[in-house]
From TrEMBL, chain A:
Name of the molecule in the record: 3-isopropylmalate dehydratase small subunit
Domain of life: Bacteria
Domain Aconitase A/isopropylmalate dehydratase small subunit swivel, chain residue ranges per copy: 1-123
Catalytic reaction annotation: (2R,3S)-3-isopropylmalate = (2S)-2-isopropylmalate
GO MF, one example: 3-isopropylmalate dehydratase activity
Keywords carried by this UniProt record: Amino-acid biosynthesis, Branched-chain amino acid biosynthesis, Leucine biosynthesis, Lyase
GO biological process: L-leucine biosynthetic process
HAMAP family in UniProt: LeuD_type1
TrEMBL record, chain B:
Protein name, entry field: 3-isopropylmalate dehydratase large subunit
Broad class of enzyme this protein falls into: lyase
Cofactor(s) required for function per UniProt: [4Fe-4S] cluster
InterPro entries: 3-IsopropMal_deHydase_lsu (IPR004430), Acnase/IPM_dHydase_lsu_aba_1/3 (IPR015931), Acoase/IPM_deHydtase_lsu_aba (IPR001030), Aconitase_4Fe-4S_BS (IPR018136), Aconitase_4Fe-4S_dom (IPR036008), IPM_dehydratase_rel_enz (IPR050067), IPMI_cat (IPR033941)
Subunit structure: Heterodimer of LeuC and LeuD.
Organism, scientific name: Pullulanibacillus pueri
Keywords in alphabetical order: 4Fe-4S, Amino-acid biosynthesis, Branched-chain amino acid biosynthesis, Iron, Iron-sulfur, Leucine biosynthesis, Lyase, Metal-binding
Length: 195, 472
C-alpha cells in the first residue's frame, strides 16, 4: 500500500449516520476478481438513479465536491459487511482520508490496510467540519505524523491513533512480509500445539 | 487463580508473538473461505510467490453467488468467473472445497458447525462479517477483509489488538412463540447498532442456557449487527451433545478428552467484563423491523415511530430517511403492513429447526395470493434432512418455492433479487437500503413470523396465528 504522511485536500460533507458498506458499494459490484476499478460504483444507488443518471440531490454529485479527497461523515461509518471492496471503492474514487465520530471495526481495519487514513474526532468537532464544508470549497490538512486536522481559518483538532497502525500507514508496509519475519515463532507455536 | 472470561482464555492460548506497542499476533485454527472475498487474496499470494501455510486448516465453499433455482445455470458471466476462480485457487493451493454440486455445499456459517469444524476454544476467521455465528460454540470467531484473508492464508496468523469484553446478560426465560431471532433483534433495538463496537460480546443468563445450538447460532450471528465483530457463548452440555458424531469431531475416548478440554474454556464464576448490559427475556415479543438498519424495529404489536418524537436531530433525520425509503407513515400499526415477498433463508435462520418452525405455521395453509414466498435451506444437507421429514412438501403444497442452498436473497448477489418498491418479510440479518435489491424494502423477522406473514399477506403475531395447540 501507499504510505500516507500528510494530506491536504478538499472536503466532501456526507451528513448521515450509520452509513453501511452496502451503500458504499452495493453487492452487484462485488463479483469482480480484481482489486481495481471499484471507484465508479461508489455509493452507486445514492449517486445514480435507476436509469444510471446522476442524482442532483446527492452531495458527491455537486460539482464543488467533485475533487474532494477527504470525506466527513456521521457516526458508525462503514457498518455492516466485511467487504474490502468498500475501502477499495473509496480509494479508487479518490478519497484518502475519512473523518467521523466512529467507524465500524472491520471497516476500520480494512481501510487501514489499504492506506486510507481514518480519523476519529469528537461529535461536535465533526459537526463543526460538516458545517464549514457545507457551503462549498473547503480544504483541510490532515497530518498523520503530528496527529492533527487543520483548516486555514483556525480549526485545529488533535486525533488519537494506535501507534502501530500509525507506523504501518507512515511507512506503507506490507504486513505479510513483516509477519513472515516471525516464521520461527509460528513454527514453534505449531510444534507446541501438536505436543 | 484470577477468574477469566472465555475470551481471555482463548486469547492467551493463541498468542504467537507479543511485543510492546503492537497488537498480538494470534494463531488461527480454522479459516473458512468463500468466492466473493478471496480472489484478490489468492492473487496477492501468487504475485508474491507465497503458499497457503495450512491448507488443512482452511475450508472453502461457494455460497454468495450460487443459483438456488437451476443449480448449474449461471447466467451472469462475472459470477461464474468468480466461482471458477475459487475452484482454480483451491486446486492450486490444495484447499478442500465444497463446490456447487458437492453434498456438503452450503452457506459457510451453516456448514462449519454441521461438519464439526467449528469447535469450542478455536479461533475462526472468514472473509464475511457473519463469522460471529460460530461463537455459539464458544469459539472466538470474527469476520475479516480480503487483506486479512491473504495474511491468514500466508501465515495462519492475524494481528489483533485485544478486544474489550461485554457481557450481554439475558435474564429470565423467553415466552412461548418468542424465538432466538426475536431475542437478538430486541437486544439490537434496545442497545443500538454500535453498542458492541470494539467489544466481543458474551451472551449469558438463563434464557441463553435454555437455547439449542441452532438458536444460539442465530443470536451470535447477529452480534455484528450490534457492532461486535465477535459474539460468543460459553460451551456447555448442549454444545458437546451437538458436536458428538459430527464428521470432524473426534470419536470415542478422543471425544471425551476433547470435551474435557472444551470445558476449560467456559467463563469462570466471578470473571470481570469491561461492560455488562442486561435485558429481561420475558418482556420480549415477536419482533419486526420497520427501518433501514437492524436496530430500527420493535414488537409486532407496536407501530412505526414518529421521527418528531425523537430528541436528537441525527435520530430524527435518520428515522425520517428510513421511513421515506421504506414507504411507511409514522404511527402505522406493524400488523397492518402488507408484504409482497417472503424469504426464509440465510446464515441467520436457514437451519433445520428454522425450517421446522416455519413449516409448523404453514402446514395445511396457503400462501396469500399477493405474496411470493421462497425457502432457501442453509446447506444441501439441511435440504436433504428437511426433505426426509417431508418439510419440502408442506412448503410447496402451501405455495412456497423450495430452493437449493445459498445466501440467496439475504444479499441478492445471485438471481434472487427483489424489484424497487417490493416489500419482503425476511429471516435474514440486514435491512439496509437496497440489500435485497435496489429500492426493495426489507423487514427482519423470525422464521415463524415470516411464515405467518406469508399466509396472512401482512404481519401478524404468530402467537395468535400458529397451528400449534400450545397457543390456543
Amino acid at each position: 500500500m501507499e504510505a500516507i504522511r500528510k494530506h491536504k485536500g478538499l472536503v466532501c460533507p456526507l451528513n448521515r449516520v450509520n452509513v453501511d458498506t452496502d451503500q458504499i458499494i452495493p453487492k452487484q459490484f462485488l463479483k469482480r476478481i480484481e482489486r481495481q476499478g471499484f471507484g465508479q460504483f461508489l455509493f452507486y444507488h445514492w449517486r445514480f438513479d435507476n436509469d444510471g443518471n446522476k442524482r442532483a440531490d446527492f452531495i458527491l454529485n455537486e460539482p464543488v465536491y467533485e475533487q474532494a479527497s477527504i470525506l466527513i461523515a456521521g457516526d458508525n461509518f462503514g457498518c455492516g459487511s466485511s467487504r474490502e471492496h468498500a475501502p477499495w471503492a473509496l480509494l479508487d474514487y479518490g478519497f484518502k482520508v475519512i473523518i467521523a465520530p466512529s467507524f465500524a471495526d472491520i471497516f476500520y481495519n480494512n481501510s487501514m490496510k489499504n492506506g486510507i487514513l481514518l480519523v476519529k474526532l469528537a461529535e461536535d468537532q465533526v459537526e463543526e467540519l460538516l458545517e464549514r464544508a457545507k457551503n462549498g470549497r473547503y480544504a483541510l490538512t490532515v497530518d498523520l505524523e503530528e496527529q492533527t486536522v487543520k483548516d486555514e481559518d483556525g480549526f485545529n483538532a488533535a486525533f488519537d491513533i494506535d501507534p502501530y497502525q500509525k507506523k504501518l500507514l507512515l511507512n506503507g508496509w506490507d504486513e505479510i512480509s513483516l509477519t513472515l519475519q516471525l516464521e520461527d515463532k509460528i513454527n514453534a507455536f505449531e510444534e507446541k500445539v501438536k505436543n | 487463580m484470577k477468574p477469566k472470561t472465555i475470551v481471555e482464555k482463548i486469547w492467551e492460548r493463541h498468542v504467537v508473538h507479543e511485543e510492546q506497542g503492537k497488537p498480538n499476533l494470534l494463531y488461527i485454527d480454522l479459516h473458512l473461505v468463500h468466492e466473493v472475498t478471496s480472489p484478490q487474496a489468492f492473487e496477492g499470494l501468487r504475485m508474491n510467490g507465497r503458499k497457503v501455510r495450512r491448507p488443512d486448516l482452511t475450508y472453502a465453499t461457494v455460497d454468495h453467488n450460487v443459483p438456488t433455482k437451476h443449480r448449474n445455470v449461471i447466467s451472469d458471466e462475472v459470477s461464474k468467473k468468480q466461482m471458477t476462480t475459487l475452484q482454480q485457487n483451491c486446486k492450486e493451493f490444495g484447499i478442500p472445497l465444497a463446490d456447487i454440486n458437492h453434498p456438503d455445499q452450503g452457506i459457510v456459517h451453516v456448514i462449519g458447525p454441521q461438519l464439526g469444524l467449528t469447535q469450542p476454544g478455536k479461533t475462526i476467521v472468514c472473509g464475511d462479517s457473519h463469522t460471529s455465528t460460530h461463537g455459539a460454540f464458544g469459539a472466538l470467531a470474527f469476520g475479516i477483509g480480503t487483506s486479512e484473508v491473504e495474511h491468514v492464508l500466508a501465515t495462519q496468523t492475524i494481528w489483533q489488538a485485544k478486544p474489550k469484553t461485554m457481557q450481554v446478560k439475558v435474564n429470565g426465560t423467553l415466552g412461548l412463540g418468542v424465538t432466538a431471532k426475536d431475542l437478538i433483534l430486541a437486544i439490537i433495538a434496545k442497545f443500538g447498532v454500535k453498542v458492541g463496537t470494539g467489544y466481543v460480546m458474551e451472551y449469558t443468563g438463563e434464557a441463553i442456557r435454555n437455547l439449542s445450538m441452532e438458536e444460539r447460532m442465530t443470536v451470535c450471528n447477529m452480534s455484528i449487527e450490534a457492532g461486535a465483530r465477535a459474539g460468543l457463548i460459553s460451551p456447555d452440555q448442549t454444545t458437546y451433545e451437538f458436536l458428538k458424531g459430527k464428521r470432524y469431531v473426534p470419536e470415542g475416548d478422543a471425544y471425551l478428552e476433547a470435551v474435557e478440554k472444551w470445558e476449560e474454556f467456559a467463563t469462570d464464576e466471578g470473571a470481570v467484563y469491561d461492560r455488562t448490559i442486561e435485558i429481561d427475556a420475558a418482556e420480549i415479543e415477536p419482533q419486526v423491523t420497520w427501518g433501514t438498519n437492524p436496530s430500527m424495529g420493535g414488537p409486532v404489536s407496536g407501530q412505526v415511530p414518529d421521527p418528531s418524537h425523537y430528541e436528537k436531530q441525527n435520530d430524527r433525520a435518520a428515522i425520517a430517511q428510513a421511513l421515506d425509503y421504506m414507504g411507511l407513515a409514522p404511527g402505522t400499526p406493524i400488523e397492518s403492513i402488507t408484504i409482497d415477498h417472503v424469504f426464509i433463508g440465510s446464515c441467520t435462520n436457514a437451519r433445520l429447526s428454522d425450517l421446522r418452525a416455519a413449516a409448523e405455521v404453514v402446514k395445511g395453509r396457503k400462501v396469500h395470493s399477493n405474496v411470493n414466498a421462497i425457502v432457501v435451506p442453509g446447506s444441501q444437507s439441511v435440504k436433504s434432512a428437511a426433505e426426509a421429514e417431508g418439510l419440502d412438501k408442506i412448503f410447496t403444497e402451501a405455495g412456497f418455492e423450495w430452493r437449493s442452498a445459498g445466501c440467496s436473497m439475504c444479499l441478492a448477489m445471485n438471481d434472487d433479487v427483489l424489484m424497487p418498491g417490493d416489500r419482503c418479510a425476511s429471516t435474514s440479518n440486514r435491512n439496509f437500503e437496497g440489500r435485497q435489491g435496489n429500492g426493495a424494502r426489507t423487514h427482519l423477522v423470525s422464521p415463524a413470523m415470516a411464515a405467518a406473514a406469508a399466509i396472512a399477506g401482512h404481519f401478524v403475531d404468530v402467537r395468535t396465528f400458529s397451528n400449534n395447540p400450545v397457543f390456543s
